[in-house]
Design goal:
Length: 253
């Protein structure tokens, strides 16, 4: 008799939602919006210096976090950069709206996958419990994206690495979700597009792993494909219900 799969964890970006623009074009506009918000708050900041320098610092941090799996928030990074510029007493009440102005630009370009709602509705009808586990440097942005996608009602838990402080594939973030939901690794499946974060992380934590390839990054996955071998693969979310049933019986069967 097959084991029962009761719980499905989902990655967010490039799994349930996708970015419809060029990051390299959008990010400078987003950082410029952050800069404009800080200037409106009274900080004298040269945009020609601030925008490229902050973006370079963010890029440097994004590379670092892929090595130590420690997540620092965007807000803390902006605060540190302002201190480096000599602004030591900038309150959170000034920095937070600026960070939200930045994310307001990127949020405009996230779209819901066309089969996301119907797939989650199908899984909910079969009795699966569901949660989102996302690597991201701003927790509020993650919750906003899930709400904007119209998917929030399906999830018992939405957890970002920004809130937890540790990124996938570190098994501690997976175990935290399992403990919060009161489920065991062998009754849980992780669905995601990134071989290292999602698939290796699930394997290290003892979960079933399902790699979704529709928007998997060719360069990143190309580097990891020989090191990380997914146990199960789907091309689109619509294939997930059948794939789960091939692994273990649905909760309401």
């Amino acid at each position: 008799m097959k084991n029962q799969i009761t719980t499905v964890l989902f990655d967010l970006g490039s799994t349930l939602i996708y970015f419809d623009a060029d990051w390299q074009e959008v990010i400078p506009r987003a950082v410029a919006a952050l800069h404009a918000s800080l200037v409106r708050s009274g900080l004298e900041l040269d945009g020609d210096q601030f925008v490229p320098e902050l973006r370079a610092q963010l890029d440097e941090y994004y590379a670092l976090r892929e090595m130590d799996y420690t997540e620092r928030t965007t807000q803390s990074l902006v605060a540190q950069y302002l201190r480096d510029l000599g602004f030591h007493q900038v309150p959170d009440e000034v920095i937070r709206p600026a960070v939200e102005a930045m994310y307001a630009v990127t949020q405009q370009h996230w779209q819901t996958e066309p089969d996301a709602y119907s797939t989650l509705e199908n899984l909910a009808r079969q009795g699966y419990r569901m949660a989102v586990l996302s690597n991201a440097s701003d927790d509020r942005d993650v919750h906003t994206l899930v709400s904007n996608a119209g998917l929030k009602s399906f999830f018992e838990l939405v957890l970002s690495s920004a809130a937890f402080g540790i990124r996938k594939p570190d098994p501690r973030i997976f175990r935290y979700v399992l403990d919060k939901m009161g489920v065991q690794p062998d009754e849980t499946a992780m669905v995601g597009d990134t071989l290292t974060a999602d698939i290796l992380g699930a394997q290290l934590a003892g979960l079933h792993d399902i790699w979704i390839t529709r928007r998997a990054a060719p360069r990143q996955d190309g580097e990891n494909k020989q090191k990380v071998q997914p146990t199960h693969t789907i091309q689109a979310l619509a294939e997930l219900p059948q794939k789960l049933q091939s692994i273990g019986k649905p909760p309401l069967e």
